[in-house]
Every structure is written in structure tokens, then in C-alpha cells.
Design brief:
The complex is a heterodimer of chains A (914) and B (152).
Chain A: H1 3-30, H2 35-55, H3 58-75, H4 83-106, H5 115-125, H6 137-142, H7 156-162, H8 168-179, H9 186-193, H10 198-215, H11 224-249, H12 254-277, E1 279-281, H13 283-286, H14 289-300, E2 304-309, E3 314-316, H15 317-338, H16 342-347, E4 354-363, E5 366-373, H17 380-389, H18 395-400, H19 403-408, H20 430-440, E6 444-450, E7 454-462, E8 467-475, E9 478-483, E10 487-493, H21 495-500, E11 502-505, E12 508-513, E13 516-522, H22 523-533, H23 541-548, H24 555-573, H25 581-584, H26 591-604, H27 608-632, H28 636-667, E14 670-677, E15 680-686, E16 688-696, H29 702-705, E17 710-715, E18 721-725, H30 727-733, H31 743-758, E19 761-766, E20 772-776, E21 780-786, E22 791-794, E23 797-802, E24 805-811, H32 812-815, E25 838-845, E26 848-854, E27 856-862, E28 868-869, E29 876-882, E30 885-890, H33 892-901
Parallel strand pairs in A: 2-4, 9-18, 13-15, 20-30, 24-26
Antiparallel strand pairs in A: 1-3, 4-5, 5-7, 6-7, 8-9, 8-16, 10-14, 11-12, 12-13, 14-15, 17-18, 19-20, 19-27, 21-25, 22-23, 23-24, 25-26, 28-29, 29-30
Chain B: E1 6-12, E2 15-20, E3 24-28, E4 43-49, E5 52-58, H1 59-62, E6 75-81, E7 84-90, E8 92-98, E9 104-105, H2 114-118, E10 119-124, E11 129-133, H3 135-138
Parallel strand pairs in B: 2-11, 5-7
Antiparallel strand pairs in B: 1-2, 1-8, 3-6, 4-5, 6-7, 9-10, 10-11
Classes of the chains: A alpha+beta (914), B mainly beta (152).
Chain lengths: 914, 152
């Protein structure tokens, strides 16, 4: 072994030993009299000291030596363990660790001065009692060998004797022979002597092996890099297996099928096995926590007891690395902020010692980790206040948020309700980092709390990162993989359901799933829209639009028309009607033909029905022309014969059209993939759903990673690349999941904004007496022109039939206050002005529609209309400068009210919007 | 005779470009590309290279040259970068060329915009000019290329 290798081994072992020391010291603090622990600690430090000396690390040796001396006093019962001593010893452990770190990085212990620490350790030694009777247990301990003794493995002779196969005498004489120089093994000698049979010796050897195997550690150290490499290779193997499976599915050869099945099984097992090698028990990280908790508790003046449940729960190494820091932060947080000071606890009726509980378990393909404390819990009010203070939420949002949502706020960056910023926590950078780190590995984190009773932070993490089951969907010719962990269910809408299943709410598509509204996102739209924004030129863009504009074929009509040929031809042949070739038309010019060649083929050409249909359709038209030709040439017999065939063909066409119609309806079916992201559900609409497969996750280039819609890529069985959807990222991009968990809020904001901007578009028109007036465009539904003849009377009102409803007509001159003060009643039917059509502004307000008759429509302008003056008369909102001229802005609601009552009421003018 | 002077050359819109041979992982013919929606315009998509996922960058777009004519399939020059493999899509592959220090010149001032940033130097060959690309920058695609004046 080279020098560096020796040092490396030393480092690895020493780090482990230091971790062991941490645990043991903390455990010793809780039970200072445990001799075993003391002895173990002493041995560990002694080992470290020895190796350091051997390798020439004198500083390390010095520190370890001071610690060892202190420990020997403790072990000899000449000193009692106090917190002071424990702290000093832990400091020694830390110093050692730091020096090891230097050795690791630079090859030397670095420029350190640990004299203060050494002095401290020596000072504490001075308090020792003089040497007492050092007999009995302590001495016995001292005599123990340096290395922990391996459990005794029985010798071959002992085993054979135990089994009664040989007697002691025979063994002894064999041993003597060995000592005299016989090079053979004991077993051989015994057999030769006839003392034992070969079989018995073999069995004895096996027993020995078993004993040895059980006694010694059945583990082996493996370089992590090597394991990663194995993982990669297994990933590749999985891909290759997928590819082979694809081919064998198409094959008939039973030999190949059988072999590939075996390959499949073996690969699966190998995959599981290799994944297991990377699994480590979570106890590995947890083991550091007792020390952490102790340190934080001591520095905060609190008492905390830590309990760990499920230490053996195994996680993939990369996950363990990723959650190490977040867990540490949460534990520190719980002690620092969660658990109260002993006085406070006692006053609240709780035991002075706080309780921290860590729990890990597997559930539903995920690892659950819970950190609970029985501390003060989260103060929702305080969080609300803080959030409002920081402007994260408005006061009305804060009031509306549920307690659970409020607790979720602590995960926002910069958020901390800690009064003091200690160097443990309180800087407000912790919780959001925790959440980000957990989510980065595909997990979720959640917090629950009962004020006064405690808090629980719950994490759910997927078991493995590299190979995941996924649902493959396709859209627009591309395939995408959706991790099954986010998949809730699949919904398929067919036929009528496809048309009615999707409703619009606030302009967004939703689907009613068992009573709940599921927001929908169209995969095609989400991905393509932005492609256009990036200026990408999609090839065949022209083609696509043509297909989109493809008129739907009216199947009924097509069927009917083609059935008609039979009777038409019959009449023609009977001489009852005439038919020319031109009228018969070519197969391209009839409605079906137009649809077929105008895009129907492109879109559906792969369907067998289409191909058949085209064929038969062509034949039919040819036949028709043939018949006409025969008839024209007076070949009656030929014409009749041809006619027979027509019947068959036209029936076939009808049949094909029906089958095609059904196929197309099938295609119109809508596939909804119901996904879950961040506690919210939404439906993803895709054109096709393929299989579920196990895929190997391959990372995307760093530059592409920023597109948070995709979590990676994978290679499909046929070698093509498919992108893996990052469900959360996708949902955020599609605005289905928002930061503030209240969509209604954002909608309100949008509406308000829209309302305020509408005020800036005006329709200018000439009112009564050619007054210049304007109407906010938002209240205007349509501009229409009605003939005076369309105007009818209904009671006292003038109305007209408009788009299936009865629309009241109101003349502004009737309704607006005028200088004349005389109500007018315009009669639309008879007018001196001639029969010019009426210009009507159809306005809607509050669901009611009214047609305002105006003299002339002038223009539509956009203006701020900021210069305003008070209302000039009732029915007018105010006067403003629009397009440079003073204009009266109409108060539509008031006008509508007036119209219903026949005159302006004696009330204050109603304000619109504001 | 140092390797740093050897370049793998290729043609783009009849211009000759080159990249350091050492940094080239391999050169292969056209590979099917899976497009990445929402990716920057210059990213053609992803290629499966014997199990390795490589990002394909259309070098014409990256250099703001006119689009490749229909039907012409690009060749791939796969570069080794720290970020995994990046394949530069080019029109045709040229020879491996060795240039001497002296023949290297400054980039002509007529080159503006994107091209200026991406081309490190120009080398005089026997009958034409070889434009040497800055590999790091060429393989970067997270920003939109600025409008550029035509190179010729």
C-alpha cells in the first residue's frame, strides 16, 4: 500500500471513530456510570492517538493524548463526568476532525494552535482524586486488548471433539505432529491417522467457516465511485433490455422469446440488487443528531431528549446526501425555536425536558420522515402578521388563508418570525432552503402544528432517482414521459362526453371529475405556444393550419348522396331523367372528394377505412361515367350490367363512411391525465396515451435545466429520445399552481385590471341634439343596424327580434334629461326622417341587454380621459376630454334603469365602476 | 507540432470554420433529433449517442447565418464539454487541418455581432480563410443571439 493509501484508510477509519466518539460521549452524559461506554471511548481515542503518532501527525497526537489522559481518569473513577468535561472532550473531537480535514485537503495538519484546548483538558485532569484501589473492574478493563476482540472462532480440533468424532488424545497427537514440522493441516493429519473421516473433517471445516462468518463483519468497503459506475451500467442494461423486449415482441422465435424473458428477469433482479448496494440506513445521518441536539440545547439553555424510530429505513445514498443538511436544520430549529425553556414548559404544565421525535418509514413507494417536537408549536397569528409586514400577502388574503396555508408560508425565502437572530437559526434562510432541497430530489415537505403542543414536519421522498416508472404519452408526434409518482388517474372522454365534458370557467377549461372541478392544461398548447414565441419556425406550419381548418365531413349527407346515385342512375337508365358526364362529376369534385383530397387524406390517411373509401369512391364515379357512356352509345345491356355493380359499390361506400365516422369519433376522444403537483391536482390533455414503462432518467444539459418544465430525458426502447415532464415545473408554468395558493385572488386582480383598462376605450357617437357622447367600450356588446321595419311594439316598449331574444330599444332622447323637460316618445315606425336604418348600440349590463338608439356612430377611440368634470345631467357619468373634445360619458346602468321605468328617477346618479 | 494547432474543420453556408481537434469527441452523420419545446431557438433538440444524451445546437442559427436549405441534413460535430456532450450541427465536414502560428490573424473588422463573439481568430490557408470558433461560447445557448450583419 502506498503512503497515500495508508493515509486515506486512516482518514476513513478515523472519521468513523470520531463519529462513534460523538455518539458515545453524548450517551455517556446521559448515563455517566456506564463502564462499557467509558472503556470504548478510551479505546477509540487510544487508537487514534496511536495511529497519529505512527503517521507522524504530532499535533493530532498531542490533542488525542490530552484527551486520553482525561479519559483514563474518568475510567478509573477518579473523576466524575461533568458537562464541562463532556464539552471539553467534544471540543477535542471537533479539533481532531478539523485537523483530519486539513490532512485530507492539504496533506498536513495545518497551522493550528490547540494549546488552549490541551491546557483546558489538562486543567480538568487536576480535579481528579488520588489513585484509589484500582483493582477490580477498572483494571480488568485496562487489560482488554486494543482492538475489539473477535469473537472466538473454534478451532477444527475443538469442533471435531465437540461432535464426538475424535477424542482429545488424537487431536493432541496430531497437534504435536504439526509442531514437529508436519506441514499439513490438522484435518489432513487426523484423516491420515484414521481418527476422522474426510467427510467429517469437511463438515467440521464448514461449521468453522460459519462461525467465523458470523463472528466477523460480513461487510466490505467499496468505493462510492465504483458503485456509481455500476449503477450507470445497470441503467444502460435496463435500456438495452427494453430495446430487446421491443424486438422480441415482434418475433415468433420461441427460443428468442424465452431467452429474452430470462434476460428480463435477471436484469430486474440485478437492478434491484445494485440499487440496494447504494441504500444506506437513515440511521447513518441520524447518529450525528444526538450530539447536535445536545450542543444546541446547551447553548440555548434548554433540555431536550431525542428519540429516533426507524433508523434502519434505507435510502439511496444520493438522497441521504441531499437531505442531510435539511434534516440537520430542522432538528436545530426544533430545539432552538420549537422547544421552550424549562421554566416556560413547567409553567405550561409540561415536563421541563423537551422531546424531539424522529421517525422514518416506507410507505407507498416513498420514504416518509417525520420530525416532531412537543414545543410551543407555530404561532399562526405571528406568521400572518409577519407575512403582512413583509408584504407577502395582503391583509384580506391573510384573513382568508387557512391555518394550514399560513403554516406553509414559513417555507418562503426570507421568512422568519424569530425574535432574535441567533447563530443557530433565525436568519430566515433555512426553511426555504429545506423545501427547495427536498423538492429538488422530487420530494415534498409539509408542516403541521398545534399551538402550545408542538410541531411536526413531514417529508416524503421517492425511493430512487435514477430509474422510475413513468407513463408515456404522445402529442404532436413527440413522446413525453410522466413520472408515475405524480400520476393520480387517467380519464378518457369519448363521443358525446368528449364534447360536453369540458367546460369553461372564467375562461379556463375545466373538467368535472366526481363533483370537483379539475383545471385542464393542453400539452400541445403549453409546449407549442412558447415555441412560437421563441421564433421557431415549425415546418409544415402551413400544412397544420390547413388540417385545422378541415371542414368536418357531414357523414349523414355523404351517405345520403351516395345512396342517391342508385336511384338517379335508375331514373336515367329508364329514360326518366337526363344525366351528363359533367353532372356526374369526377371523384374529386363531389363533396366527399373535396374532403378527401383537401386534407382528409393527410390527416386520416393511415386508416384502412380511408384507403378503402378512396378506392371504392373512385370506382363508383368511374362506373357512373361508364354507364352514362354506355347509355349514350345505346349499349343498353352493358349499361344495365354496370348498374348492378353500382348498387354494390354505393352500399360499400355507405358502410365505409359509417366505419370511418366511428373511427374519427374515437379519435376525437379526449385523454386526460390527472396529475398532482404540490398538493394541487390538474388534468393534462394529450392526444395519445401509450404505455407505462420503467425509464432511466438522464439529466439534461445544465443550460437546458433552467426550463423547469422538463426533469430530464430518457431513451425509449426504439432508441428515440423522450423528454421527462417535471410535473411541478410544468404546472407552475401553466399557471395551474401559483405561489399564493389562491387562484381566485389572481383572477380578481385580473378582472379589476381589465375593468380599469376598459375605461380607456370609448365608442363615440352623436346623441340627441347632436351632442357628443361616448360609451365605455366594455359595456358595449355589439353595434347593430336595424331596419325600421324590424322594430315592433311590446306594451309600452319598442323592441326588436335580435339573435333569438327580444331586445328592448331605447332612444337616448327619450331617456336623457333635456332642457325641454318634456318627455318624448319617439315613434320608430313612422318618421319624417325617412327610412334610414337605426344605429343601435347593444349594451349589456348585469346580464340584461338593451339596444340604445343613437343618431350617428362616430368613432372608437382610446383615451385616458383624465380630464373630467362633474356630470352635466342625469344619465351621464361625467364629462371628459376624449380625443381632444369635451364629451359626455354615458352612465349605462342609469340609462338601463331609466329605460325600464320609462323615465329618469329622482335619485342620485349611479356611479359605474370606480 | 503541438496538437493545439490542429483543427477539425467544417462548412457552414460555404464558410469554413474550425474547432480545436482535441476538444472534439467525435464526428458523425446526421442523427435524428428529438426537439425540446421551450428551448432556445438555436437548440435543435436532443440526440441519442449510444446511450448518451447530447444536446444538438444548430450552428447556423447560433451564428445567425441563413437557415439550412430544405432537404439538406446536417452533420454532427460532438464536442466534449463539462456539461455533457454538445453536438454542433454543420453542413459538411472538412479535413483535419494543421495551422502554423504565423498564419493566424485577427478577425476582420467587417465581422459584427454574434459572429465576432464566437470567432476567436482567422487563419490563412492556401486558398481560403479558416474561421476558428470559440468552443465554450459556441456551445452556450442560453441567450438569444443578437441580430448580426451578414458575414460576407
Amino acid at each position: 500500500m502506498s503512503d497515500t493509501e495508508i493515509v486515506r484508510e486512516f482518514l476513513v477509519e478515523s472519521y468513523e471513530n470520531l463519529d462513534l466518539l460523538d455518539r458515545e460521549l453524548v450517551s455517556l452524559e446521559k448515563d455517566p456510570t456506564k463502564q462499557e461506554t467509558l472503556a470504548s471511548i478510551f479505546r477509540t481515542i487510544h487508537t487514534i492517538k496511536g495511529t497519529c503518532g505512527f503517521l507522524g501527525f504530532s499535533k493530532l497526537e498531542a490533542v488525542a493524548h490530552a484527551g486520553e489522559n482525561l479519559l483514563s481518569l474518568l475510567r478509573d473513577r477518579r473523576l466524575e463526568l461533568t458537562p464541562e468535561i463532556a464539552t471539553a472532550l467534544l471540543k477535542m473531537v471537533d479539533a481532531t476532525r478539523q485537523m483530519l480535514g486539513s490532512v485530507e485537503k492539504m496533506g498536513s495538519e495545518g497551522e493550528r494552535d490547540d494549546r488552549a484546548l490541551i491546557a483546558e483538558l489538562e486543567r480538568l485532569q487536576k480535579k481528579a482524586r488520588p489513585t484509589e484501589e484500582s483493582t477490580g473492574a477498572p483494571t480488568a478493563q485496562q487489560k482488554e486488548p486494543e482492538k475489539p476482540a473477535e469473537a472466538a472462532v473454534p478451532s477444527l480440533g475443538e469442533i471435531l471433539m465437540q461432535k464426538g468424532l475424535v477424542n482429545e488424545g488424537q487431536v493432541v497427537s496430531a497437534l504435536v505432529r504439526q509442531e514437529e514440522g508436519d506441514p499439513r493441516r490438522l484435518g489432513e493429519i487426523l484423516v491420515e491417522q484414521g481418527a476422522a473421516k474426510p467427510q467429517e473433517v469437511l463438515e467440521a471445516i464448514q461449521t468453522q467457516e460459519a462461525a467465523r462468518g458470523g463472528a466477523s463483519e460480513g461487510t466490505i468497503r467499496v468505493d462510492v465511485g465504483l458503485l456509481d459506475k455500476l449503477m450507470n451500467l445497470v441503467g444502460e442494461l435496463v435500456l438495452a433490455r427494453n430495446q430487446i423486449l421491443q424486438f422480441t415482441n415482434a418475433t415468433e422465435s420461441s427460443g428468442l422469446l424465452g431467452t429474452s424473458q430470462r434476460l428480463n428477469l435477471i436484469t430486474t433482479e440485478l437492478q434491484e440488487g445494485v440499487m440496494k448496494t447504494r441504500m444506506q440506513p437513515i440511521g447513518n445521518i441520524w447518529s450525528k443528531f444526538p450530539r447536535t441536539v445536545r450542543d444546541v440545547a446547551v447553548s440555548c439553555g434548554k433540555q431536550v431528549r431525542i428519540e429516533m424510530e426507524g433508523r434502519d429505513t434505507e435510502l439511496d445514498k444520493t438522497i441521504i446526501e441531499a437531505i442531510k443538511d435539511p434534516l440537520t436544520h430542522l432538528v436545530r430549529n426544533a430545539v432552538d425555536h420549537g422547544i421552550e425553556r424549562p421554566e416556560v414548559r413547567v409553567a405550561a404544565g409540561k415536563p421541563a425536558e423537551g422531546w424531539l421525535h424522529l421517525r422514518a418509514f416506507h410507505e407507498g413507494g416513498q420514504v416518509n420522515i417525520e420530525i416532531s417536537d412537543d414545543g410551543a408549536g407555530l404561532d399562526c397569528e405571528k406568521i400572518r402578521q409577519k407575512a403582512m409586514q413583509k408584504g407577502i400577502v395582503t391583509s384580506e388574503q391573510a384573513v382568508r388563508m387557512s391555518d394550514r396555508e399560513v403554516m406553509g408560508l414559513i417555507f418562503l425565502p426570507g421568512f422568519s418570525t424569530a425574535e432574535k437572530v441567533t447563530n443557530v437559526s433565525g436568519r430566515g434562510v433555512g426553511m426555504d432552503v429545506v423545501k427547495t432541497n427536498i423538492e429538488k430530489i422530487g420530494g415534498t415537505v409539509d408542516v403541521q402544528s398545534k399551538p402550545g403542543q408542538g410541531t411536526t414536519v413531514r417529508m416524503k421522498i421517492p425511493l430512487t432517482l435514477a430509474i422510475i416508472p413513468a407513463l408515456i404519452v404522445s402529442d404532436g408526434g413527440d413522446r413525453y414521459a410522466i413520472p408515475q409518482v405524480s400520476l393520480l388517474e387517467l380519464v378518457r372522454l369519448e363521443g358525446r362526453q368528449a364534447r360536453t365534458g369540458i367546460e369553461m370557467v372564467h375562461g379556463a377549461p375545466v373538467h368535472r371529475l366526481r363533483g370537483r372541478l379539475l383545471p385542464l392544461v393542453y400539452l400541445k398548447r403549453e409546449l407549442k405556444t412558447n415555441a412560437k414565441q421563441a421564433g421557431e419556425k415549425t415546418e409544415g406550419q402551413g400544412k397544420k393550419t390547413r388540417i385545422e381548418n378541415l371542414e368536418k365531413l357531414d357523414f349523414e349527407l355523404a351517405r345520403a348522396k351516395h345512396l342517391l346515385w342508385k336511384s338517379r342512375l335508375r331514373e336515367f337508365l329508364d329514360g326518366k331523367s337526363s344525366l351528363t358526364e359533367a353532372e356526374a362529376g369526377s371523384h374529386k369534385s363531389c363533396a366527399l372528394g373535396k374532403w378527401l383530397y383537401g386534407g382528409g387524406q393527410e390527416e386520416y390517411g393511415d386508416l384502412q377505412e380511408m384507403r378503402d373509401l378512396e378506392q371504392v369512391h373512385m370506382q363508383l364515379h368511374m362506373l357512373v361515367r361508364e354507364i352514362i357512356g354506355h347509355q349514350g352509345a345505346k349499349h343498353q345491356a352493358a349499361a344495365e350490367e354496370a348498374f348492378q355493380r353500382v348498387g354494390l359499390l354505393s352500399d360499400r361506400i355507405v358502410g365505409l363512411l359509417t366505419a370511418l365516422e366511428r373511427e374519427l369519433e374515437e379519435r376525437q376522444a379526449i385523454n386526460i391525465v390527472v396529475l398532482q403537483a404540490d398538493d394541487r391536482q390538474f388534468g393534462l390533455v394529450v392526444s395519445d396515451i401509450n404505455d407505462t414503462e420503467e425509464i432511466v432518467v438522464k439529466p439534461l444539459s445544465k443550460q437546458l435545466k433552467s426550463i423547469n418544465t422538463f426533469a430530464g430525458a430518457t431513451i425509449m426502447g426504439d432508441g428515440t429520445v423522450a423528454l421527462i415532464l417535471d410535473v411541478l415545473g410544468f404546472a407552475q408554468r401553466a399557471s395551474v399552481v401559483s405561489e399564493v395558493r389562491d387562484r381566485a385572488l389572481t383572477e380578481k386582480a385580473v378582472e379589476r385590471q381589465a375593468a380599469s383598462s376598459e375605461h380607456h376605450s370609448y365608442l363615440l357617437f352623436a346623441g340627441p341634439d347632436d351632442a357628443r357622447m361616448a360609451l365605455p367600450l366594455g359595456t358595449l356588446a355589439r353595434l347593430e343596424e336595424f331596419q325600421r321595419t324590424q322594430v315592433e311594439r311590446s306594451g309600452t316598449k319598442w323592441v326588436t327580434q335580435y339573435r333569438g331574444e327580444i331586445l328592448s330599444l331605447v332612444s337616448l332622447s327619450d331617456v336623457l334629461e333635456e332642457r325641454r323637460q318634456r318627455p318624448r316618445n319617439t315613434d320608430y315606425r313612422v318618421t319624417a326622417e325617412g327610412t334610414a336604418p337605426l344605429q343601435v348600440l347593444v349594451c349589456s349590463h348585469d346580464g340584461r341587454r338593451v339596444g340604445l338608439v343613437v343618431e350617428r356612430i362616430l368613432d372608437i377611440v382610446e383615451d385616458e380621459a383624465s380630464v373630467k368634470s362633474a356630470a352635466s345631467r342625469r344619465g351621464v357619468l361625467h364629462s371628459a376630454v376624449v380625443n381632444g373634445k369635451v364629451t359626455e360619458i354615458l352612465d349605462v346602468p342609469a340609462i338601463l334603469q331609466a329605460a325600464e321605468r320609462g323615465r329618469i328617477a329622482d335619485t342620485q346618479p349611479v356611479e359605474v365602476g370606480a | 507540432m503541438s496538437n493545439a494547432n490542429q483543427f477539425c474543420t467544417f462548412y457552414l453556408d460555404r464558410l469554413l470554420f474550425g474547432v480545436e481537434l482535441q476538444k472534439v469527441q467525435e464526428v458523425i452523420r446526421y442523427q435524428d433529433v428529438t426537439r425540446v419545446p421551450l428551448a432556445p431557438r438555436v437548440v435543435s433538440g436532443l440526440i441519442n449517442l449510444r446511450g448518451q444524451i447530447v444536446t444538438a445546437v444548430d450552428l447556423r442559427k447560433r451564428l445567425d447565418l441563413p437557415e439550412r436549405p430544405e432537404g439538406k441534413l446536417p452533420m454532427n460535430v460532438v464536442m466534449r464539454t463539462e456539461d455533457g456532450g454538445v453536438s454542433l450541427q454543420v453542413d459538411e465536414i472538412g479535413d483535419v487541418v494543421e495551422v502554423s502560428e504565423e498564419s493566424s490573424e485577427e478577425v476582420p473588422p467587417t465581422l459584427q455581432g454574434v459572429a465576432r463573439e464566437l470567432i476567436k481568430s482567422a487563419c490563412k490557408l492556401q486558398d481560403r480563410l479558416l474561421l476558428v470558433l470559440d468552443i465554450e461560447k459556441s456551445c452556450q445557448f442560453s441567450e438569444n443571439p443578437a441580430q448580426v450583419q451578414r458575414l460576407v
